[in-house]
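Lab notebook, bench 4. The sequencing result for the construct came back, and we need a structural model before the next group meeting so we can plan mutations. Quick request posted to the team channel:

Model the 3D structure of this chain.
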Amino acid sequence: MDEKFLGRSAEADYAKHLQTTWYKNNQALRCHRPWRNTSSVDWQLPPSYQRTISCEERVWSIPCRIADDRIVFGCWDNSLQCVRLSDGASLWRFTTQGPVYSSPAVSEDGSFVVGCEDYVLRRISREGQCLWTFEAQGAFHASATIDCAKNIVYAGSYDHTLYALDLATGTLLWKRSFDEQVEDDLYSSPALNADGNIIVGTDNILMCLSPTGEERWRITETSRFEGTAAIDYPSGRGIIGTEIDGKIIVFDTRNGEVLKQFTTDGFVVSCPSLSPQGVAYVGSNDGYVHGIDLQTLEVLWRVNLKCEFRYTPFTVLPSGDALFVGTDERLHCLAQHTGETLWCLEHRGGFHSSPLLTDDGHLVIGSHRNAVHFYQWVP
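Done. Here's the predicted structure in token form:
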């Protein structure tokens, strides 16, 4: 087999993988259309720097693609901003009444749903028009999730409530409230399993709810679930970390059975990602990144990168390799089978958000230092 065929095969596997997994920076959640095969891109080489656009405040929200040449991102300067992917030119700006920390969930038509620290969840068109709003009693800090098959939006608020809304109208379908004594609840973003059930962390409970809000199962632990679960549909397995006691927990998404636990020496609050070959990538505040095989439930490798991994979600390249940002503000790429560093990007403006990847070879990433950086893999 020639290299070009192998490239097409890997891209096809990745496109399928995006539809058969759920993790917070699965690229299908951040783009308006399905992934297309582009075998001319060598994803194991670092992309080339293109440009930086300046912002008035930090960008922690994951950039999203709402049209072929349109990128949107939330900013701490109380705005959502849309720019052209091709040259970074500003297209529109939507003003909110508070910082935007959470990341947009993108629909097929390019509209997106995003929460804000002003207690409002909004659906916004790709032209920047507000289609509906829903107001809670606390900030929407976690990212919303769209179930496209059922046309339902799930979003957790700091008012200790998970909301289910009609995607078309923003009408409340149901809500589930949790313990008001828990600080910053809900921080965990709602994840979807293969049956359309919602899996979300609240304090020391990982809970599974049906699309109508009925409890399916729960896992009770000794520490908080602040991160977001990653879920592999074919195996029915999920993975998530706990805060204070630093556990990594693999569980059955269908019944909540805990299959395996691993212990680290730091908080595990960063959100895991999954490779097409079933390797889960998890970072801990002890400086280590773990590559865990979800089939064998074994640690394939454990690498100390001498920085912490907090809330920034991990993602994965079409090559299957891990991609993530640490507190060193660098973008790391590790080989999925060995944990070896394939490349590492640095910029004087630093990186903070998890990156957006596009099938035509762009990488867009936000910075804690008031900027968004653009890179590209050049064929």
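The first strand starts at residue 21 and ends at 22.
Will bring this to the meeting.
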